[in-house]
Amino acid sequence: MDDTAKFQPTAYRDLRSLGETYRDGQPVLLDLTDTSDADAKRFVDVSAGLVFHARGSMDKVSSRVFILTPPLKNPKQRDLG
Q1: What's the average model confidence in pLDDT over 50-58?
Q2: Number of neighbouring beta carbons within 10 Å of residue 42
């Protein structure tokens, strides 16, 4: 997970940087532990839409931490796991 970017957004505008990082093919760790319930829901909703659109994946690491994994560029790489 060395190449994973960590984001702890404090405002809705912080999601732009998260989206750009994810769009560039880098996995993102989304940490919402210090976020209000309302903002955390918005951040998860936006992140889920981003992942769905890109055909990546979003997995829950803990109650308020998620990993967003972009799709693999080469589908044959999935067989190497």
Answers
A1: 95
A2: 15
